[in-house]
Amino acid sequence: MLYYIDSSIVEAAENQNDSVVQRLDELLYCWKRGLCVLDSRRRNLDRLIALGGSMKEFSAVKAVKQGIHNIYSDIDFFIVLTNGNANPQLDANLLKKAALLEITSVSGVFNFAINFVVCENVRDYDLYKWGTDSLVKALKDNIFNLNIMPYNGGGSTIVDSVRHLNGFNKLLITDSDKKYASCPKGCTDSLIQQYIRSERPDLCWSYTLIVHEVENLLPFEVIENVTSTVRYKIKKLNIIKDDAFGNTFLIYFDFKNGFRCSHLRLIRKNENTSLGNYKKLLSSIGISEDRIKKTLKMKYDKNTDNELICGFGDSILADCLTYISSHDNVNFKILDYQKEDWENVSRKIWSLGCAMKPKRN
Predict the structure, then answer these.
(1) Is it the case that residue 300 has pLDDT exceeding 90?
(2) Which of 187, 217, 304, 344 is most buried as measured by Cβ atoms within 10 A of its Cβ?
(3) CB atoms < 10 A from the CB of 217, how many?
């Protein structure tokens, strides 16, 4: 996390406010160990350095200030630390990204040091972490580090889980669970948005995927390598991704359970304007018009709700992550329908976990 030190804190330190000085010492501890980014106006840093003692270590923060200048354009949010609820003097555009935090409300060093990415499953975190490491250009720079921790939020229990993280920086990432374009988002997203509106938690940011769920963000090349023994499955999806309607289909495709007969009837009922596109796409992969007609006439029966397009099973995410972790230089190639989510996820994770490389003593 980037912590911007407001001048009100400098004034408190100059007035020998012990609580503020202790928090500043903790910030320096985290900064030196690659757990955060620190910034302030040069004049504020000079005033802190002039106090002597441990505050002299802010000279190292000042020395790298120029090197972190561009970070503000690469993040969606950061924290402005104030004292006495002062109004910080910041550029209006930066204030839009800023979360204000009274420095003496921070319990201790752990609250500065730990940033949680809360997902429905810890495997989701592993994929998001890999994607962020691959996409964030700043992490290729020798001065930056990524400091994040996973937290298993579950699905319907995610709000109860997040309440245990009060006082910590946290980013909540959830699936949309949408089955088609006009479909409402799932209950997990609703619970999170209600929690944020009603309880207004501090230090909490959220993002809901555009795609159906995290499996939709897996690179196709990784899926191909993992499912080489059932290559016919990915073969059909490769035909679909090149179709004019392919991106829309793949956004809402269930990579675990496949596209089933009931899905097509659901689209006819709730989004009939798209039905023609789905029928045309199904025909392009060899599903006959007669089968499509029969499918639309059927009533739901879980025993006959067959796959029109096969999924890859519940273990596809775990299998892909095993492949990624056991192979060097796996190609992170994303498709058009995945770009917006990957750009947003990686940018928000970088905002949460941006940090300096640890400093040698």
Answers:
(1) no
(2) 217
(3) 23
